[in-house]
């Protein structure tokens, strides 16, 4: 049996406070959610879907806190764009985990929300993986 995929895959982040996390994502990415309520918010990001789900409402119950995965976005504009995104992340209150640095897949940084969810921004201008 072959699965017939219906639309873009979702990335779901389990968050403590959906409205607060959604506001930060909207400010950081410049994209408003297409669905936004106290328990779940949904963003369409470059054709993909990012859902924020209140951790206490996830079934089956979550055994571990967030932080062992990340939502990653490739951006255009080279290292200068990554540096600017890092500055914006700090301005809106994301917690810097990794300052912009060159890695084998591109120039990148990682930041976290208060609940441990991570977001990585990177530029793949020299390596389109």
Automatic annotation (TrEMBL):
Residues covered by the VOC domain: 7-124
Matches recorded under InterPro entries: Glyas_Bleomycin-R_OHBP_Dase (IPR029068), VOC_core (IPR037523)
Annotated PROSITE patterns: VOC (PS51819)
Official protein name in the record: VOC domain-containing protein
Lineage: Bacteria, Pseudomonadati, Pseudomonadota, Alphaproteobacteria, Hyphomicrobiales
